[in-house]
Amino acid sequence: MGASVKRSGRGGRHRPMGEINVTPFVDVMLVLLIVFMVTAPLLTVGVEVDLPKTRAGSINADAAPLVVSIKADGELYLQETMIESDKLIPRLKAISEANPAVRIFVRGDTSVMYGDVLGVMGRIQSAGFEKVALVAQLPEQE
Known about the structure:
Blueprint: E1 5-7, E2 14-16, H1 23-39, E3 66-70, E4 76-78, E5 81-83, H2 88-96, E6 103-108, H3 114-126, E7 131-135
Parallel strand pairs: 3-6, 6-7
Antiparallel strand pairs: 1-2, 3-4, 4-5
């Protein structure tokens, strides 16, 4: 990519032109837009949990939160990885790197006892994590 040179009439002086071709930039941006539009729906947490329904609004999070899921059979998952109950807090601390302001969402199946879900939330909060929230689904409109 070079600058074109214009010849002036007298003295043979050369003056570079300062024009920028933005077409390649626009092409790259459009390709990136399409790639991100296709991959964004695939970045959701993949543990299958039957969430309870609620009419509360959705939470707008700035950064990607950590998700703790409790399945119907009581299995505990951190993101998509099954984890033992006693290893949850050390793993959360290792992932968050001593950042107690990280968001942690707790997802519990509808058939899990409410006390079990609150027990997991309580352990997470007592470990020093400040932003712990429950996740629910919006009910289907009738």
